[in-house]
Amino acid sequence: MTDRFDGNFTQQEPIPDEAIAAALEVMQHGRLHRYNTAAGEAGETALLEQEFARFTGAKYCLAVASGGYALATALRAVGVKPGDPVLTNAFTLAPVPGAIASIGAKPVFVEVTEALTIDLEDLAAKADQARVLLLSHMRGHICDMDRVMEIADAAGLIVIEDCAHTMGAEWRGVPSGRHGRIGCYSTQTYKHLNSGEGGLMISDDAETIARAILLSGSYMLYERHLASPPAEIFEALRYETPNISGRMDNLRAALLRPQLARLPRQVCAWNARYARLEAELDGTDGVTLIARPEAALPVGSSFQFLLLDWPAVAMERFVAACSARGVDLKWFGAAQPIAFTSRYDHWRYAAPEPLPRTDRILAGLLDLRLPLTFSLDDCDTIARILREEVGAARPD
Ligand SMILES: *Cc1c(COP(=O)(O)O)cnc(C)c1O
Description:
Layout: H1 17-29, H2 44-56, E1 60-64, H3 67-77, E2 85-89, H4 95-102, E3 106-110, H5 120-126, E4 132-136, H6 145-155, E5 158-162, E6 170-171, E7 174-175, E8 182-186, E9 199-203, H7 206-215, H8 231-237, H9 250-281, E10 288-289, E11 296-297, E12 302-306, H10 312-324, E13 330-331, H11 356-363, E14 365-369, H12 376-393
Parallel strand pairs: 2-3, 2-4, 4-5, 5-8
Antiparallel strand pairs: 1-9, 6-7, 6-11, 8-9, 10-12, 12-14, 13-14
Helix pairs in contact: 1-9, 2-9, 3-4, 3-7, 9-12, 10-12
Bound molecules: pyridoxal-5'-phosphate.
């Protein structure tokens, strides 16, 4: 049987009606800039920050222009300077090393495991090489957060969490993004909330978030924030912190607030699809599924699996066969960067050292998106096609 899947892997759900209505209201009154508020009005951006702080349990929150901007701002806010090394996972998305490079700092890559999370042994070995770890929960896989914080604390490493794929996820009941000094999120279309572009950052550290607020371009209007520390924290900082504009606007915030209210339901919907695909592929000869620790409650907005130690020609054959049947897979072993890149050795500006364990993982790693426009039946169809094509492409 050679049925085809005709779903679209990049088609997200429509923006909910109440979010469209809220955005229309902002357009009708015209006050799109976050500090352009009428007397007594809070503003959509300030309200979003307050709601996201509440959602994560953080004391403070700042909304910004993108996830990548949030990461760069977080690095600046904890004092990373040009030339400083910053540890980060070798398996992550291009904006992560890009944020490090954007401030003139130097990414130092740490190996990843078969669980697609940072290799804690390699991290421990490299912990004395930097002051900061930018920990990326790539594709929603969460490492042992207890252990990573132990390693970081012992080495005096400040942890910044890249939660682009873990908004709504938890580790032992604690929201992802709440373990490090700062948690950074993206609200770009392919993430868990969709405002086209956008980012959020959270922290419990008053001075760190005050620096981030000033950096983001608050001028001297920081008192209009609702999830920020008291004005006196800004007193000394405001003279020494440059304005590097990257604010969120009220139109995007209006789109995001109703989506945030729905996020817990969306998390369940994603996890149901992930679980379906996982169950359908379990036991397929040659396929290694990604182990996820008990303590993690991830958000299954994408799905990965490994065809470990397959030769490149077999991988290429498999990807092409799936594509011919409508199943778009991203293979991280491709020699040339294609679309959204995630291979550390393609980031030559960072002069990466070879990482043999990571190379083995990336050479066998396949990835597909699970937009919520897919039904559980769609997941069955995708799984059937993957099973059949793994069988057909398997090397002898
Ligand atoms: C999308 C993404 C980012 C950056 O988000 P943008 O809002 O696109 O700048 C950072 N890290 C990871 C892992 C991502 O997937």
